[in-house]
């Protein structure tokens, strides 16, 4: 446990969505079917929001964030993004529910009208926090792994590895007992995520299933699914393709940590609502899983990572503390990472992951060898038009830019192309809010 004396400047919160209905993911491409959050899931996220409030927005808490407005939402202090990808509304709705717990209705949320009337917000002063809906079709940051041929190839290689063959042998006896519980689903180790997810959803929502399932089966399936997913969503190399979920989300996280550490930036609380996948890469890339092997598992519904930015009282640069809450009914626990036994200087974290970051859509297109999906087609078209010297107007570029830390060369190249086309609308992620926040238009993934 890290324990140095410090004051907290702010926090970056990453959560997994709450309880949801059934869900299917292609075992190779991880293209997902749609699903919905359940009332239980909404409760889990709401309670998580209340818990976060009790830690960070409560003046009597030791982790109360100095200077934060704990009653009325100050939109310059909070920045929220939600993955609008394969699980469709589940992750976005989780963010809505969490925020309702984080910033409850307040009767001081009022406005004085010219005619002397005082009006309180709806629902007793309920406050609305803007949520940036992150669409995979135009922003790769929260779902780096879809439509990525290199990732699919890496997953296939994992399935063909000797470690996988060995695990297949070890698990064969267990898997052979599962068909009666799987309603015809393929019982293969490759399909382990879908097997576990089906069993988990049924165990929670189907009384007959729950009674029929032998008591150890769900935990055994979780152990296998965790092994499977850790193998898919991590890599022995920091910049390996298996870590793509972490490599695409980290630029945003580092940018938020830096904003919080910067006294002249008002940001205090950044929150990203996610699927389970980025957690594997983040625990792997930060070395947290190496020091704490329990962090190699599938994180439960409504699990939360809180990266606190702290100022040591002894002086020196801001440090980062990694706290993780392992789902409902658990407390936050501080985990060591990057080989340290205490909070880690922010610059140490940045320097460690920097070589592996995928900072822009263009960089992602290169890493994934994609020239058509998720903005890559528009980038390729723009580049070819620019070099060909044609001046026809072209359609809206779907190429979203990641908010932070763009590689200089890429920035300059892209600025040149876009300026040439009169389409220069690049901004920091947070400045982008005005355009893409508040909406929850959901684009299907380009196949
Ligand atoms: C003042 O304006 C509000 C909003 O238009 C209206 O609902 C209210 O009835 C007005 N009050 C008076 C006293 O005119
Ligand atoms: C990351 O995961 C890979 C397995 O994909 C493992 O070989 C490697 O040791 C892990 N790295 C760390 C730092 O835990
Ligand atoms: C979180 O809980 C799961 C059971 O739901 C368990 O398998 C896992 O080891 C726990 N992880 C940590 C970090 O405690």
From TrEMBL:
Superkingdom, natural source: Eukaryota
Ranges that cross the membrane: 401-424
Annotated protein name in UniProt: Phosphoglycerate mutase-like protein
Family membership: Belongs to the histidine acid phosphatase family.
Protein's UniProt keywords contain Repressor: no
GO molecular function, one term: phosphatase activity
Keywords recorded for this protein, A-Z: Membrane, Transmembrane, Transmembrane helix
């Amino acid at each position: 446990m890290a324990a140095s004396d410090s004051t907290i400047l702010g926090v970056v919160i990453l959560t997994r969505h709450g309880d949801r209905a059934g869900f299917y993911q292609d075992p190779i491409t991880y293209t997902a079917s749609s699903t919905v959050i359940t009332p239980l899931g909404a409760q889990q996220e709401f309670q998580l929001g209340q818990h976060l409030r009790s830690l960070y927005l409560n003046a009597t808490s030791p982790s109360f964030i100095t200077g934060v407005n704990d009653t009325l939402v100050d939109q310059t202090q909070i920045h929220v993004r939600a993955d609008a990808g394969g699980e469709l509304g589940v992750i976005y709705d989780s963010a809505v529910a969490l925020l309702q717990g984080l910033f409850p209705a307040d009767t001081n949320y009022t406005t004085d009208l010219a005619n002397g009337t005082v009006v309180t917000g709806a629902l007793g002063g309920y406050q609305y926090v803007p949520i940036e809906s992150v669409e995979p079709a135009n922003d790769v940051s929260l779902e780096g792994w879809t439509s990525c041929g290199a990732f699919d190839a890496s997953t296939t290689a994992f399935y063909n590895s000797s470690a996988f063959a060995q695990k297949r042998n070890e698990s064969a006896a267990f898997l052979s007992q599962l068909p009666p519980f799987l309603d015809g689903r393929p019982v293969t180790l490759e399909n382990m995520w879908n097997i576990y997810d089906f069993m988990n959803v049924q165990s929670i929502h189907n009384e007959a299933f729950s009674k029929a399932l032998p008591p150890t089966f769900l935990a055994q399936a979780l152990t296998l699914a965790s092994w499977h997913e850790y193998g898919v969503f991590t890599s022995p190399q920091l910049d390996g393709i298996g870590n793509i979920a972490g490599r695409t989300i980290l630029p945003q996280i580092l940018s938020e940590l830096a904003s919080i550490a910067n006294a002249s930036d008002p940001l205090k609380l950044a929150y990203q609502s996610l699927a389970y996948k980025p957690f594997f890469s983040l625990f792997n890339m930060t070395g947290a899983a190496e020091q704490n092997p329990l962090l190699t598992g599938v994180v439960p519904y409504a699990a939360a990572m809180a990266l606190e930015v702290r100022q040591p009282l002894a002086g020196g640069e801001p440090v980062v503390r990694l706290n993780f809450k392992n789902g409902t009914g658990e407390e936050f626990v501080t985990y060591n990472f990057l080989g340290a036994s205490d909070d880690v200087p922010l610059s140490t974290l940045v320097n460690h992951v920097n070589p592996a970051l995928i900072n822009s859509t263009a960089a992602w297109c290169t890493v994934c060898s994609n020239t058509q999906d998720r903005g890559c087609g528009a980038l390729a078209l723009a580049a070819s038009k620019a070099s060909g010297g044609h001046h026809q107007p072209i359609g809206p570029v779907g190429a979203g830019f990641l908010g932070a830390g763009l590689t200089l060369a890429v920035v300059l190249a892209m600025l040149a192309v876009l300026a040439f086309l009169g389409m220069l609308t690049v901004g920091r992620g947070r400045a982008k809010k005005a355009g893409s926040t508040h909406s929850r238009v959901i684009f299907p993934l380009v196949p």
